[in-house]
Amino acid sequence: MTHPPYVDLPTLTALVSLPAAIDALEGALRAGWPGQDPLRTSVPTQSGEFLLMPSEGPRYVGIKVITVAPGNPARRLPRIQGTYILHDAATLTPLALFDAAALTTLRTPAISAVATKHLARPDATELVVAGTGPQALGHVLAMRAIRDIQRVGVLGRTPESTDTFVKTLVDIGISAYPAGAGDVAQAHILSLCTTARSPVVPDAWIGDRAHLNVIGSHKLTAREVETATVARSQVVVESREAALAEAGDLVMAFADGVPPSVIVADLAELVGGATIDPARVTLFKSVGTGWEDLAVAALAYERLSR
Fold first, then answer.
1. Are 106 and 18 in contact (CB under 8 A)?
2. pLDDT tier, 2 (very low <50, low <70, confident <90, very high otherwise)
3. Is the dihedral of CA 25, 28, 32, 38 positive or negative?
4. Do 273 and 126 share a structural domain?
5. pLDDT digit string (tens) for 9-19?
6. How many domains does the chain have?
7. For 266-304, what is each residue's pLDDT tens digit?
8. What domain range is 274 assigned to?
9. What's the distance, CA 226 to chain centroid?
10. In whole angstroms, what is the distance from residue 100 CA to residue 49 CA?
11. H or E stretch including 297?
């Protein structure tokens, strides 16, 4: 038996660009891929947790096995590590192994871009991103792939991390600056990409026509936005089942009395033409689902096999 190829981050990004990942995910939505994937399974360990995310598509099946170790950054190790295994759907033969963190780094901003493409105002030029890690960078690049973003404001945990990330963006030719309350109020798109347990942007800062991508957590006890923001938003989720099981931003708002009817569509319904009021705030809450990994891994494997 031949050993399946291993796809690391440089190989994955060479095979699948952000625009290609965005197209693959939207194509999978239109083809009805998001079906009845099992919810993410969490297995606690002494230093963190294992997360298991299986999915089945027409030609391929796959499973992501990742670990989350909150103490790792202090050890100068990645917080998230793991492996994605892609199989043939008919024979269940393993076809390829992927760096799971690399796959997550690509598909998460790509799925936010699919939502933003259908939710943000077409003339959006101002982006503010909360966070300074790989997901923040991925979201800046993804938003620029689907809108004519002219400037990027950065909300970091510390002035030092903010300045470092601003320099990273400037060094690759992106106009960026440390953001404050007034910049958030003027932002057309807000991407919240933090590991915060409590809201990072007060509702009073957020403009009336802003679009928010809220992707930082899949924990019921963590949220990046206030209840008031959820209450006045048109919320879109990957799936209602996953959101109700894992999205602390929403579940805590519902516990505060916000009706679940603020969820106006899932992604498949949105791509299929769900009606959205352009004069109101829109919010995409992502917890990450297995079919997203499968769609991007399948595309990468097919390109690798040419």
1. yes
2. confident
3. negative
4. yes
5. 999 999 999 99
6. 2
7. 999 999 999 999 999 999 999 999 999 999 999 999 999
8. 121-288
9. 19
10. 15
11. helix 290-304
